[in-house]
Amino acid sequence: MTLDKLKSDARAIFEAGLKAVDPVIAVNNHLKRSGEILELGDSKYDLRNYENIFVIGMGKAAASMAKAIEEILGNRLTRGIVNVKYGHTVPLNIIKTNEAAHPVPDEAGLRGTKEIIELLKGSGENDLVICLISGGGSALLLSPAGNLTLEDKQAVIKSLLECGATIHEINSIRKQISSVKGGRLAELVYPSTLISLILSDVIGDDLDVIASGPTVPDTHTFHDCRNIIEKYKMEERVPRRVIDYIEMGCRGEIEDTPKAQSPIFKRTQNAVVGSNILAVSAAKEKARELGYNTLILSTFIHGETEEVAKVHTAIAKEIRSSGNPLNKPACIISGGETTVTIEGKGHGGRNQEFVLAAALDIDGLDNVVVLSGGTDGNDGPTDAAGAIADGTTIGRANKLGLKAYEHLSDNNSYNFFKPLGDLLITGPTNTNVMDLRVLLIS
């Protein structure tokens, strides 16, 4: 088996995972219409009972999910608005699309959220609201709480991303400093009936973390926010207004986010329609089809990217050496989402950094290929989904004068792989279920 064949197979396995989490397919697999009856799981909704049907959405996959809703409901839809990341659009007939920035929010996201809020103000008890939620929704649905500003939120998110905080920690703070996250969007919808269709991009599919849980009870508090700020020593990096707001919440001077006992959730149904395990499972089936002995390592992978890469390459080395835990040809697949503590000034993302760290560890090994990519098609602030490497990568880079360790320490993985032609470029996929990693050993 040639190296080119291994690399081609790795890409095919990744693409099979992407196909399995197409948002249109995911929505249609869960939401069914028979005449005037809409079914979601065991729940049935008689459309004749509703005067209006509104659609709102936020996230990288929101436009594709909205396309599925238009196909299902047709002219029964009254009106809709979805906020998506720039470039993550599809043609829609009824539902309006607002493009905005991710992961750091911008004015366009703020304006789009105001439009959604105004739409909800026009809904009532006899209306149905369908909310489409996917990864990226936290940045794309924003309405700062209290006296906080967009600039305050931008500064907080930048600081959290740079310090290596997990998505659970980032969203814990996002919820408390927002007027639409952490169940507060459900407050705006109430007393309308609310259906939320969710494409998960967080480990464990925690509903109150995906897009910062706008339609579910919040399990976090202001005290959690204070602990996170103290953990990462962010007191001097976060705007004073934000610190003061959180402290007021800790003292009980600001009402906490809605909890499970709140009556607003009695008319709400939340359903996960797609997640990382679907992508990973489809990738596994493709690898088997291509003739590989295949193992799903985990869909709960998290932690510092460089360290996670070392664990993956250690398994690859064990397979080459002893045939454990799989005989060759072997494929190891994992999902989840790692983090990067940013110390340099380079350009890249967690998947590219994972592959660069792995390339250093497999340097010189024959017939080993490592691929890692974000299912949304964007790895960090780049146009690449990730990268691919093999045992010749470091040698090829040396001939071009590219110093791998320097690029890794400067968080500059994008500019390492670009001259090599080893970036994984998919373009916006209009889906988002975290990352997918593929290791092939022949």
Write the layout of secondary structure elements.
Layout lengths: L2 H18 L2 H8 E4 L2 E4 L2 E4 L6 E6 L3 H12 L5 E7 L9 E6 L6 H15 L6 E6 L3 H4 L9 H14 L3 H10 L7 H6 L3 E7 L22 H10 L8 H11 L17 E7 L1 H14 L3 E9 L3 H18 L7 E7 L13 H12 L6 E7 L11 E5 L2 H7 L4 H6 L3 H8 L2 E2 L10 E7 L1
Parallel strand pairs: 4-5, 4-7, 5-6, 7-8, 8-9, 10-11
Antiparallel strand pairs: 1-2, 2-3, 11-15, 12-13, 12-15, 13-14
Helix pairs in contact: 1-11, 2-3, 7-9, 9-10, 12-13
Textual characterization of the structure:
With 442 residues, this protein is of the alpha/beta class. It has two domains: 3-14 and 277-441, MOFRL domain (glycerate kinase, domain 1, 3-Layer(aba) Sandwich); 22-143 and 178-220 and 257-274, 3-Layer(aba) Sandwich (Rossmann fold). The protein has helices at 3-20, 23-30, 62-73, 107-121, 137-140, 150-163, 167-176, 184-189, 222-231, 240-250, 276-289, 305-322, 350-361, 393-399, 404-409, 413-420, and strands at residues 31-34, 37-40, 43-46, 53-58, 79-85, 95-100, 128-133, 193-199, 268-274, 293-301, 330-336, 368-374, 386-390, 423-424, 435-441. It has a six-stranded parallel beta sheet with strand order 6-5-4-7-8-9, sandwiched between helices. A six-stranded mixed beta sheet has the order 10-11-15-12-13-14, sandwiched between helices. The radius of gyration is 22 Å and the shape is globular. The termini are close together.
